[in-house]
Amino acid sequence: MTYRTLSANGRGALFASLALLAILAFVGITTRPLTPIDETRYVSAAWEMWLRGDFLVPFKNGEPYSHKPPFMFWMFHAGWAIFDVNDWWPRLVLPLFSAGALLLTFSFARRLWPQHADLGGQASLILASSLLWIVFSTSVMFDVMLAFWVLVGMHGVLSATEGKRRGFVLLGIAIGLGVLTKGPVILLNLLPVTVLALWWNPGLKWSRWFVGVVVAVLLGAAIALMWAIPAGMAGGEAYRNAIFWGQTADRMVESFAHRRPFWWYLPLLPLILFPWFVWPGLWKALAHHRKTGLDRGMRFCLAWMLPVFVAFSFISGKQPHYLVPLFPAFALLTARVLADRPGTRVGLPALLAAALGGVLILAASGQIGALNDQVAALPPVWPGALLVLLALAAWVIGRRGISPVLNLALLGGATLVLVQLAAMHSLRPLYDVKPMARAIKQVQDAGLPVANAAKYHAQYQFLGRLEAPLAELHGAELPRWLAAHPDGYMVIYLKDKQNLDAISARHKQAYRGGAVVLVDAPTAAGLLAAHVE
Fold first, then answer.
1. What are the residue boundaries of the structural domains of the chain, listed by start?
2. pLDDT tens digit sequence for 472-496
3. Count of CB atoms situated within 10 Å of the CB of 411
4. Dihedral of the CA atoms 407, 411, 412, 415 (nearest 10)?
5. How far apart are CA 1 and CA 42, in angstroms?
6. Which secondary-structure segment (H or E) carries 184?
């Protein structure tokens, strides 16, 4: 696919981005298990709602679960209603929303820069190959879904500046569904660009604009309250207080759970924006653009991206996936910058540097875990060697006129495919808890109670199709429960695997940095007496 082919109308690049996403989703679903703690917890919450026939209040291990709104769980239910309950549909929902985001990015570029017909496809290809985006497009997490609603809202903002009142309606719908997806954080992603509208779109009548934005926020709040009010009444006082207070002020308190310095995101940018951040051609294009200035579309992308990045930097709780909704803005801005230098190539040094970065990512997938004793075996060498060969092949093909964007996109996609293949070899034995979940199901089906001797994140509920909660026990509760349930079983977590073979257990397996065993009450009492945590 030559540069001219990609540049004709952008549809070739859009198709390439969707094909790349499909391949990555297939590899993710077939190589990675649902991973504790987050993925298994979210699917388990949806499973308990399904089991109860209660689609208002999410549940976790038999108790109302107020930490997340239900929209993603509803998407799981929609697929289960069509295909019956299965493991693969929840894994497919996020790639589908990612595909929707690629389509919205494609059309957004065309609206911002109608004179550059090819930019939409270029932006979608850049987005589909950025490392953090594709990681979370194939994970059961909320952030890509949130990014989809951010894009819907941005389309609404753009329509509103063109004098279309339905733009504010679209913005309000995006706010409401964004709140139902991940809470009020959608406002942090959408409102800064509306506040800066006079900068990127001079000539707006501020009073009219302000009224329209307020109406959109109120519409979004009304949509969210259509769920929150009946859910609060059905879930009880504690749940009601949690969703009305916990989704606002308590979210700020929760943000301190991952305390990190304000500069923490900066050294991560080469990794999360791989391979684009490490490409010298992008930096040369940026330097060239300093002479030409910023157009309206570039100002829009900066107003979308920079204030939110700064805000997340100053919030002490930080996680890489918080930045996922900013990636469409990065992709759009990158595509626009590169458009002024269509002859830019990806030289051999740049490709080898990108390949080296990929090799380091591959090594980190196993070596970082090895430092924490959390891998079953070191990753194989062949994925890194193959990535270097792919970089050489990309260089050879690039000399024949292949688009540098396509070259780097394929290299970024290949990196994630190989990372997942290498990580599966090292990490799957420690993170696949389905065998333990099935063993617990067998015990419960026999009418015997099961307790979890630690904080329980519901990691076994969906994978085992459990219909009863596990008793979550700590400290002095443990011996009391064993005394009251002499025929019961207990899930106990071991710090290491050294003595695992000597333990008589219904089921035992490696788990994260240690091991987990399902044992009867007498064995559990002996393990607890030996101060096993």
1. 3-339, 348-430, 434-529
2. 999 889 999 999 999 999 999 988 7
3. 24
4. 170
5. 40
6. none
